[in-house]
Amino acid sequence: MLGLKLPTDPRWVNIVEKNIEEILTDHAYCEQKAASTAISLIIGFPEKSELVKEMTALAREEMGHFNMVHDKILKRGWVLGRERKDEYVIELMKFFPKGGSRETHLVHKLLYAALIEARSCERFRLLSEEINDKELAEFYKNLMVSEANHYTMFLTFARKYGNREQVNQKWQQLLEYEATLMEKLGKKETMHG
């Protein structure tokens, strides 16, 4: 359903289980960055009323998720660590060339967001099925549905605001590129990289 070309190696869960504190910190910042992305789309494209409405709701939801992850961290007697660089997102953002029209820029941002949500959904599914920590397994199962909805929402908006055929072509190219990234990444206790 997600269209990802390279699934996460299930052994990634073994890496995560060795450092739950690290994955929770990384996950918390992923939720915060997702909220920031929603806000940046509102600021950058205020004339897109439907997008603004959906991004407002998304920003609230993502900050709610941030709070939920933060609560998990506190419950385990830890504190939120410092933000880490997200190598996955840094590398992903290199795919589309800089410049172009506002509409092209919007479509690219929406496609990046869709892919990040798709990968998150896939990782949450894997965690929900494979992690030994039953509380976290249930937590990630519940979040997985939200990520799937976000993925489809971003992809739908990209197709709405861009030429559907061109957007579908760009989406497939981005998926192929992301698969090459995942061959190199996915070996750390981070949500994406």
UniProtKB/TrEMBL annotation:
Lineage, uppermost ranks: Bacteria, Pseudomonadati, Bacteroidota, Flavobacteriia, Flavobacteriales
GO molecular function, a single term: tRNA 2-(methylsulfanyl)-N(6)-isopentenyladenosine(37) hydroxylase activity
Protein name (record): tRNA-(Ms[2]io[6]A)-hydroxylase
Gene3D superfamilies the record matches: 1.20.1260.10
PANTHER family: TRNA 2-(METHYLSULFANYL)-N(6)-ISOPENTENYLADENOSINE(37) HYDROXYLASE, TRNA-(MS[2]IO[6]A)-HYDROXYLASE
Gene Ontology biological-process entries: tRNA modification
InterPro entries: Ferritin-like, Ferritin-like_SF, tRNA-Hydrxlase_MiaE
A Pfam short name: MiaE
Superkingdom: Bacteria
